[in-house]
């Protein structure tokens, strides 16, 4: 199954220009099997997930992207989130205690929202978003390497705030996903892999892993 595990909607994120209805329509066009909404620091849409699934005839799950002191953490399978900002290792532990899973979002993005090497200090974190649609290729490369080092579940997400970003990356799940519980278990089992939409073939394929070599202009910047 193909599910975008990181996107933002106008209904839940102030910085998004993507109405949920349009996200669903585009996801269907691309042959996705579902969407997991991860609006910023809110589970606002979570109580409506089943209603939305029924309305659109399309799987809608709701997680959340939480900003910690060290960067963003994608969280799945919890009913509530802390009312105060936390350190990433502390939040990952809390999520595990609540029965959910967490994954580092765009971990090497250089805008203050990537966890980077702090991932090594998060033994309770289950996954890493190694392909993010709004992240530089060499930063995705670093995420690939770190996820391999830590034996984490690997995710792909468009990080869409606009309709045309859907399809850049998503996550393939090895088994059927019918609920948030299924998604959580699949991440725990490491039964995931990132994919990207190939417009020429109309198929979801494994993304090409960027070279480890960083262009000189980016190394100097």
From TrEMBL:
CDD domains hit by this protein: PHP_HisPPase
InterPro entries: PHP_domain, Pol/His_phosphatase_N, Pol/histidinol_Pase-like
Pfam families: PHP_C (PF13263)
Transmembrane segments annotated in the record for this chain: none
Any one GO molecular-function label of the UniProt entry: 5'-3' RNA exonuclease activity
Recorded superkingdom: Bacteria
SUPFAM superfamilies for the chain: PHP domain-like
Stretches assigned to the Polymerase/histidinol phosphatase N-terminal domain: 3-70
UniProt protein name: Polymerase/histidinol phosphatase N-terminal domain-containing protein
């Amino acid at each position: 199954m193909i599910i975008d595990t990181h996107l933002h909607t106008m209904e839940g994120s102030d910085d998004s220009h993507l109405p949920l209805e349009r996200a669903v329509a585009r996801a269907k066009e691309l042959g996705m099997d579902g969407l997991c909404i991860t609006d910023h620091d809110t589970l606002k849409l979570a109580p409506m997930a089943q209603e939305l699934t029924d309305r659109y005839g399309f799987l809608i799950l709701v997680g959340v992207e939480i900003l910690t002191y060290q960067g963003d953490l994608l969280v799945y399978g919890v009913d509530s989130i802390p009312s105060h900002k936390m350190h990433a290792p502390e939040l990952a532990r809390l999520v595990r205690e609540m029965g959910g899973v967490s994954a580092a979002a765009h971990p090497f993005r250089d805008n203050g929202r990537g966890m980077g090497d702090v991932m090594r200090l998060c033994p309770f974190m289950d996954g890493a978003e190694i392909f993010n649609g709004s992240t530089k290729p060499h930063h995705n490369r670093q995420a690939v390497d770190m996820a391999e080092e830590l034996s984490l579940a690997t995710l792909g997400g468009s990080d869409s705030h606009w309709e045309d970003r859907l399809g850049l990356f998503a996550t393939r799940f090895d088994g059927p996903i019918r609920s948030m519980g299924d998604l959580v278990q699949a991440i725990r089992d490491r039964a995931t892999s990132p994919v990207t939409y190939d417009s020429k073939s109309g198929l979801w394929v494994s993304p090409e892993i960027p070279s480890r070599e960083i262009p000189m202009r980016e190394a100097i910047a």
